Structure formats: C-alpha cells, structure tokens
Amino acid sequence: MGRFDGLPIREELKSFEPYGAPQLDVPILLNVNENPYPPSEDTVQDVAASVAEAARGMNRYPDREFLGLRADLAAYLAHESGAQLEPEQLWAANGSNEVMLHILQAFGGPGRTALSFAPTYSMYPEYARDTNTAWVTGRRAEDFTLDRSKAIAAISRHRPSVVLLASPNNPTGTALPIDVTEAIVAQAAALGSVVVVDEAYAEFRRAGTPSAVSLLPSYPNLAVSRTMSKAFAMAGGRVGYLAASKQFVDALRIVRLPYHLSAVTQATARAALRHAGELLGRVEQLRIERDETVDWLRSLGLRAVDSDANFVLFGTFADRHAVWRALLDDGVLIRETGPDGWLRVSIGTGEEMAAFRASLERILKTDTGRQS
Ligand code: PMP
What we know:
Layout: E1 28-29, H1 41-56, H2 67-81, E2 90-93, H3 96-107, E3 113-118, H4 124-130, E4 134-139, H5 148-158, E5 162-166, H6 178-191, E6 194-198, E7 222-227, E8 240-244, H7 246-255, H8 263-274, H9 276-279, H10 283-299, E9 303-304, E10 311-315, H11 320-329, E11 332-333, E12 343-346, H12 350-364
Parallel strand pairs: 1-11, 3-4, 3-5, 5-6, 6-7
Antiparallel strand pairs: 2-8, 7-8, 9-10, 10-12
Bound molecules: 4'-deoxy-4'-aminopyridoxal-5'-phosphate (PMP).
4'-deoxy-4'-aminopyridoxal-5'-phosphate (PMP) binds next to α3.
C-alpha cells in the first residue's frame, strides 16, 4: 500500500517527504539560522498595537499591493545598502521561500530550466520541482567559492531561464565577490535569463563585501532577495522580500495569489521595520561570535569554512550523524546538512555557544568524534 493510494498525486511527488529541519523541544536551538535574541517588550507592544489596528478593519481584504510596506522596505535598503529604489521595485511575500516560488512560477515552468551551484540551499530544487521546472546544478570549488568562468560556461551550456545564487551561501556561509556576481548577471542578460541573488544572510556579511543591490540599476534581469527571518529576528513573522526592476516585479504580480500578504503580516512587518535598529542590534555581536567559533573549531584541528552568515559549516567527521546525535543528547540541536562529513551550527547567544563548545569538546574525545 502506498501512502497516496487512490489519489492522483503527481508521479514525481510520490517519493518525497515534506521538507523541513527537525523541530525538537531541546534547550539549545542552533539549527535553522534564527537570530537567538527575541524582540524587546517595547517592540512587542508596538507590533501588538499595529496588529490590533489592522484587526479593526479585518472585515475587508488587505491592501493587495501593500505599497506602504514596499516603501518601508525601500527605505530600509537605502539605509542598509545605499540602494535608491522606488516602492514599485520591491516585492514581498510570506518568507523569501514564497518570493522565490513566485519567481519560479513567473520565469520557470515546463520546458524551462533553473540553475544553481552546489552545495547550496536545499529548497531550490523544491521550487523547481513544484513548478515543473528542470533543475540543474554546477559545482562550487573545493573551498565552496564559485569560479567565474565555470559559472559562465554552465549558464551558456544549460541556457537556464532562472539562475539562483545564494550569497552568503547556505550551508557554506560563502559570499560571492561582486565582480563574479556581475559577470554572471551580464552573461545571463545576454542569454535572456534572470538571476536571483538570495541575500537571506546579507546583514551578517563581513565589512567590504558589497550587496548585489548595487547592481540593480544596470540589470533589469536581476533580483536581490532578502528576508526578515534571519538578522532581523522575525522568523515567526514570515516576511521575505526582493528588490528588482519594475518589469521584474510586474511579472511576479501576475502569479501571486490575490491578497497573499495578510493585514496582520503587513502590520507586523511595518512595526518591526520601525524598530530595525533594535532588532538588528545584535548583528555585530553575532558576527564576532561567528568569527570566534570559526577560530575555535580550527584550534581543535577541525575544518571550518569562512562565513559571511550567522552559521558555520565545520567537519569533517567519519560519522557526522553520530556527532549530530551526541550533541542532541547534550541538548544542543544543530543541522546535519551540506556535503557528507560536514555539520552546520547556527550562531546563538554567548551562553548557547558555550554549551555547544562544551558538548563538542567532550564528543571529540570519544570515538564518535572521529574525523575523516
Ligand atoms: N534563502 C536561504 C539561503 C535560506 O537559508 C533561507 C532559510 N533557511 C531562506 C532563503 C528562506 O527563508 P524565509 O522563507 O524564512 O525568508
């Protein structure tokens, strides 16, 4: 008996499980790259008051074009990355996951191809699968950087309609140099492809790493996707967004469901943006903690990848699952992801990182912690 007997589920979906990291009730959660610091009571009160105000009009559908929120997001990007954008160049949805699904719905589809470079974010092939878009990957180098000429050759060979570039990349933390991004976007423009630079972790990037938003004025085929789930400490609010040309955004407006962004979500996001200073206030501390974590892992003789994000990929272990499990037994949940032998730890509070270090140090002294 199959799970879907009697149901006309699409053939290619039959063997899949719903995607998602384990949600386990343990004390130390370092597995989904959240910001570990909750909002202040002041911010909570402002969000609650804004949601109450939205509730007073909830007999009506929300503002379908949410231009108020789009203007606030444009102002945020002007402040954060110096971008000068019109509200019509911004788009938002329920997490950047949904933003990217909109992109695949608009630009992918049967007979079309999406291309990325592995190892990368594991949801990308799912957007492709769900929109009946063919999925192809090129490879990143041994150190997880992306070779410009190989990337360009892959685009010329596969002629994708969509290229997905995560920068900083998940799960490796690797940011793309802006000249490599630009070369790829230019090649894609020449072949009629769009490029999405997924900057979910951009606010954590190290000094001197520019955002791809600086390329937007020159490339109407480019979109830069961001999220409020990570540095912005709003994973529970489900707000992702992108910046692109007006034409690009107009294409997404065709495929979005009407009123996809609820009045509650819009009110929450706008209130959170008013408190951006506070919500992002711990980013510098998390960056320092990240760099210290890389140094600490290396001091133990492990490999750790330089990171521009709020997580670190480290290893390599003969049995990474056993190490993951042993950490969990100590109440520390990290992520078993990336190439075989590697594990990813999100950067938590100082206390959480101390618990992670104590547990890993203990495991490394046992047979479980064998390196490969
Ligand atoms: N892009 C990348 C690279 C991510 O790691 C994630 C979350 N893990 C997302 C996009 C999606 O985040 P959200 O839907 O919460 O905005």
